[in-house]
Amino acid sequence: MEQTLASRLEGIRERMSAACLRAGRAPDSVRLLPVSKMHGPEEIEEAVRAGLDCFGESRVQEARQKIPLCSGGLHWHFVGHLQTNKVREAVSLFEVLHAVDSVRLLECVDRLCAEEGRVLPVFLEVNVSGERSKFGLKPEELGGVFEAAGRLHRVRIAGLMTVPPIAEDPEESRPFFRHLRQLRDEWSPRAGLPLAELSMGMSHDFDAAIEEGATWVRVGTLLFGERRRVEGHEPDAA
Ligand SMILES: *Cc1c(COP(=O)(O)O)cnc(C)c1O
Q1: Among 202, 203, 224, 234, which residue has the most ligand 1 atoms within 8 Å of its CB, making it the best to mutate?
Q2: Do residues 143 and 177 lie in contact, with contact meaning Cβ atoms separated by under 8 Å?
Q3: For a pocket test of ligand 1, which of 15, 16, 55, 58 has the largest count of ligand atoms closer than 8 A to its C-beta?
Q4: Best CATH choice for the domain 5-224 from the list 3.20.20.10, 3.30.1330.10, 3.40.30.10, 1.25.40.10
Q5: For 100, phi and psi rounded to 5 degrees?
Q6: Using one digit for the tens of pLDDT, what is the confidence trace for 126-155?
Q7: pTM, whole model, 2 decimals?
Q8: Do 134 and 127 meet the contact criterion of CB atoms below 8 Å apart?
């Protein structure tokens, strides 16, 4: 059952279309973000040959080394937890930040975007499950963040993002996806922002996420295969 990346991609695209159909959504309303963390430039180039041009990374240090070794003109999204001392570099490497989870980080991104002369779309990461081990804002903290964001001109809050607790059954993720969409529906008019983007769903649960309104699904393992474990590298820490 050796499969090529191109055939795995085709399988993912078919499932994405099927989920859109079930939900009565336009197939082009959901985009695939291939998460290439802990995969090398060769694998990314294989994905580029299969037609992909947008990739997600979760460590600034890894991305800094990898991006120059890949084709130019690719679009890089940061999906990890960002530390303030890495923001300057993140702002220069990435086009979208998927997991902004504090006013402090938002203000830091705004300041460094001003210095770099750019405007960055960001998604606010919300911890909808309340799991204590998780990053992300509590739902009740969103108001304060939108208020602060109203004073900032270099960051644009484009939507919300979440990572539900790890579960075997994708149906267990569904209530968290639904909750994220409800928070978006609630906050969009209050904040006066479209909040069009919902970044939710990974390899094991992206179908359910699409049915619940995802506009970006972040898929790593299912596309690239198992990640290599590199000594001293925590997969999800920046
Ligand atoms: C690694 C990662 C993914 C991809 O996970 P898979 O289960 O391999 O698809 C998605 N989102 C975030 C935030 C990640 O860190």
Answers
A1: 202
A2: no
A3: 58
A4: 3.20.20.10
A5: -80, 125
A6: 999 998 888 999 999 999 999 999 999 999
A7: 0.95
A8: yes
